[in-house]
Structure formats: structure tokens, C-alpha cells
């Protein structure tokens, strides 16, 4: 895991969580880490235990030069599609950083220019660069907290466990109970998409 080190520039890393979910927002974070930041545990959030994600979240928030997290909600996802919503979430997180930066590194292979700041897309960047990994941790933990909160409103979908992803249990609950205001209506909510009452 590398720190994107260049003495001349300040780098912001960004990543999103929840792109493949049937319910809930897509959430992005942006993080600027100190150039000497080191952490042996920090990695792509999907590879880490819940305990380590929570521990890293507090360490990142305590040590980052700046960080921000933003949600893009279901109505906007349905309006502009999930790819555009994911990029919008990353743009909003970058916009919310309270520190100037000269370069952006993005997890994945798709992005749109942001404020004329040079950027680089890095496939599997959350396993290669610490600022992207840190962003993945903050995005995932923040989104998970949101899904656990709305689970209390609609426990039949078990969002506390599946976080809105298309598990068999989640799809079965949609088939039995229909959908909620938290579901993404533009997504294929059931495998055959026969009938869902909106």
C-alpha cells in the first residue's frame, strides 16, 4: 500500500460505496492524508473486518489533513443513473474538503473533470493507494451506518445485514412486501422484474 508521494503536490483520494445496491444511497468520501502517513492495516474496505473498518475510521478521521463524506440518494440515482450518481457523490465529497489540493486519484476507471484539477483513475486503487483506501473506509462505514438506521424502519429487508445489496433474502422481501422509498426504482429489483407496485 503506497502513499501517493510527491513533495510538490497535495493529493486527494476518492472512492464510493453502494454502487451495486438495490436500496439506499451511493456514498463517496474524499481524503487528504499527510505525506508521512503510514498504516499497516489500511486496505480496500471490502477486504477488512467490521472491527478493523471501525478502528480505521477513527484513525483516518483523527489523522487526515481533510476528509469529507457525501450521500447521493435514490431519487437522484434514478434520475441520472448510478454511474453519474457515483461520480457526483465523489465530486461533492471533493468539493466539501476544507483544504486545497492539486491532484485527484480515483478508484476505478471512470470519472469526470473536477474544477480543472488533474486526476488519475486507478483500477483497484483502494488496494494500492492509502488515500483511496481511506476514502473507501469512510464511504463504506458511513453508508453502512445509514443502512442500519433505516433498517429500524423496515426490518423485513434486513438492511442491517445486507446493506441494501441484492441478496436472495433482500429480493425475497421485495417480492413479498413490495418496495419502499429507499429502493432504487431504476434498478432491476427482481431477477425477472415481473411486477412491483411503485
TrEMBL record:
Cofactors, names only: Mg(2+); Mn(2+)
GO cellular component annotations of the record: cytoplasm; ribonuclease H2 complex
EC number(s) from the headed UniProt entry: 3.1.26.4
Localization annotation: Cytoplasm
InterPro entries assigned: RNase_HII, RNase_HII/HIII, RNase_HII/HIII_dom, RNaseH-like_sf, RNaseH_sf
Main location class: cytoplasm
Domain RNase H type-2 positions: 9-198
Example GO biological process: mismatch repair
Coiled-coil annotated residue ranges, if any: none
UniProt KW Transport keyword: no
Domain of life: Bacteria
Record's catalysed reaction(s): Endonucleolytic cleavage to 5'-phosphomonoester
Keywords: Cytoplasm, Endonuclease, Hydrolase, Manganese, Metal-binding, Nuclease
Gene3D superfamilies the record matches: Ribonuclease H-like superfamily/Ribonuclease H (3.30.420.10)
Cofactor mode of binding and number, as noted: Manganese or magnesium. Binds 1 divalent metal ion per monomer in the absence of substrate. May bind a second metal ion after substrate binding.
Binding site for a divalent metal cation: 15-16, 107
GO molecular function: manganese ion binding; RNA binding; RNA-DNA hybrid ribonuclease activity
HAMAP family, per database record: RNase_HII_B (MF_00052_B)
Record family assignment: Belongs to the RNase HII family.
Functional note: Endonuclease that specifically degrades the RNA of RNA-DNA hybrids.
Protein name from the UniProt record: Ribonuclease HII
Protein species of origin: Christiangramia gaetbulicola
UniProt lineage: Bacteria, Pseudomonadati, Bacteroidota, Flavobacteriia, Flavobacteriales
Gene name in the database record: rnhB
Amino acid at each position: 500500500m503506497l502513499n501517493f508521494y510527491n513533495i510538490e503536490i497535495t493529493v486527494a483520494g476518492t472512492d464510493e460505496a453502494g454502487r451495486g445496491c438495490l436500496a439506499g444511497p451511493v456514498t463517496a468520501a474524499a481524503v487528504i492524508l499527510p505525506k508521512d502517513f503510514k498504516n499497516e492495516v489500511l486496505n480496500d474496505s471490502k477486504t477488512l473486518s467490521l472491527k478493523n473498518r471501525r478502528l480505521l475510521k477513527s484513525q483516518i478521521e483523527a489523522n487526515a489533513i481533510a476528509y469529507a463524506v457525501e450521500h447521493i440518494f435514490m431519487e437522484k440515482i434514478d434520475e441520472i443513473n448510478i454511474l453519474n450518481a457515483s461520480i457526483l457523490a465523489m465530486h461533492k465529497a471533493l468539493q466539501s474538503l476544507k483544504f486545497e489540493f492539486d491532484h485527484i486519484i480515483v478508484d476505478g476507471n471512470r470519472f469526470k473533470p473536477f474544477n480543472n484539477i488533474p486526476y488519475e483513475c486507478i483500477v483497484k486503487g483502494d488496494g494500492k493507494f492509502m488515500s483511496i483506501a481511506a476514502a473507501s473506509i469512510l464511504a463504506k462505514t458511513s453508508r453502512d451506518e445509514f443502512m442500519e438506521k433505516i433498517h429500524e424502519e423496515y426490518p423485513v429487508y434486513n438492511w442491517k445485514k445486507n446493506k441494501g445489496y441484492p441478496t436472495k433474502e433482500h429480493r425475497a422481501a421485495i417480492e413479498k412486501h413490495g418496495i419502499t422509498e429507499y429502493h432504487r426504482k431504476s434498478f432491476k429489483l427482481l431477477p425477472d422484474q415481473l411486477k412491483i407496485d411503485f
